[in-house]
Amino acid sequence: xxxxxxxxxxxxLILGRLEMADYLRFGSVCRSWCFTVAQRPxxxxxxxxxxxxxxxxxxxxxxxxxxxxxxxxxxxxLPEIHGRLCVGSSEGWLITVDEISELHALNxxxxxxLALPSVTTLPNVGGAVRDSDGQITDYVIVxxxxxxVPYEVERMRMCYYAKxxxxxxxxxxxxxxxxxxxxxxxxxxxxxxx
Length: 194
Hints:
elongated; 4 helices; F-box protein At2g05970-like; F-box-like_dom_sf; 194 residues; KIB1-4_b-propeller; single chain; alpha+beta; signal; four-stranded antiparallel beta sheet; 15% helix
């Protein structure tokens, strides 16, 4: 009997019980198992988190992860976060900042992504300044004394977010994101179901 001839539910059950390294190798068994992985029906079982290392200069679409349990480095293709900064991770999710300072959540193993609220919804962000082509060049920051100060997109991207975490809601559907942000990284904002 071939691996491909198994009932379609069985590979999904197996996939959900694997350690991360085996989860990543799962699709190499046969075409039908590769298809199962491509559909990404479930994350791997909970385990000790991997450490994502800083960007690789040789391939901007690849990230290196260190697995403490087996003391090995793994490279994972993540074109979805090309050019983004990582400002947090939790529960298997990476929180990244794109080139216009917007936050995104991505699960690198399942490929799932979540839409996060726009930077312009933060309490002290008064809006965005656009050039003649419609590209965002600055954000308007409203200071405590109600002055409006322009904040360059790249400065916002590099300095405005100190930390972000994502937590699944207790109801089982949806997530809550919490962000430490601001000029002095002293403000806290959250959005979500709870």
